Amino acid sequence: MVHKLKQWIGRAPLAMIGAGLAFSAMAALVKASSDHIPLFQITFFRAGVSAVIIFFAMILRGVKIKGSNQKFLLLRSLSGFTAMCLNFFALSQIALGDAAVLHQTTPFFVIILSVFFLSEPFHRNLLLLTILCFAGISVVLRPSGHLFNLAGLAALASAIFAAGAYVSIRHLHKTDTFWTMAFYFMATSALLSFFPMLTQWVWPHPKEWLMLIGTGILGTLGQLWMTYAYKHDEASFVAPFAYAGVLFSFLWGALFFEEVPGTWTALGAGLTVIGGVGILILKKNVSMPIPPALPDLKAPHKRRGP
Which of 5, 4, 47, 16 lies closest to 191, judged by CA? Predict the structure, then answer.
């Protein structure tokens, strides 16, 4: 079955769909855990488990732990940590699908930030797609409805901070490997979560231990699959498949949390996804940062430096 899917869809798009599945499942575990486990405790396990996995992967591959561009590694880590916390808070308060739609506006904000901070051109053909994204955001948030609150705005803010992290990657890609960036991000997030976690510690039940560890494993798996997809095909082709994660989020919400999307949510999600996919397809016309590719997992890696 998997072999037929690879032939029909292609390895890179299938990997991107897998990434969407892993990230959406991770979000579902975060939401389920948040009923009893505090935010920073969830964040610590999500980041800490990933940091351990990535650390041993770097040791096995001979990749140096210390990064070269400390300033932008810290900026990327802080932006990513803030995005993670905001997204996890939103997941604990609003429907999975709504949070996924708002967080998936990241490509739109990447372009906006790239125009202001990287002096990149804003292609005129993107104007309509930008309006579509804004319309979708407005419909999902519904200023007169229940989502225009702290949690809904937090989900949108998480997309903005995630975009800031991707803009930082533009600089880091020249000096540091994916492994280094990912490790600094996860290690910094775990460290920043550790002390707040201690002040609110709740002893997890056995099932909750599995869910907390699962967030880190699924998050790491999603990141690896996403990077594999970008490595093996053009970003403008595979990136739209990431929106499969939105569909998976609506599915998990309906199956496990009794969250059935209404008409306005479906309309807003459709507009946002159409605008986002269009932006990604037109990526060749606008220089937009994307996650850097992983080195070939099967290729030998030479240690850099002494």
Answer: 47
Q: Determine the Cα–Cα distance for residues 75 and 77; give it in Å rounded to an integer.
A: 5
Q: How confident is the model at residue 303 (pLDDT cuts 50, 70, 90)?
A: very low
CA max distance for the chain: 60
What pLDDT score does 295 carry?
A: 41
Alpha-carbon distance of 116 to 243, in angstroms, equals: 26
Domain boundaries, the chain: 20-285
Question: Could you tell me the sign of the dihedral formed by the alpha carbons of 108, 244, 97, 201, in that order?
Answer: negative
Residue 202: the pLDDT is 96
Instruction: Round the CA-based radius of gyration of the chain to a whole number and report it.
Output: 19
Question: CA 102 to CA 89: how far, in whole Å?
Answer: 13
Q: Token pair of 174, please?
A: 């020249």
In angstroms, how far is the first alpha carbon of the chain from the final one? 47
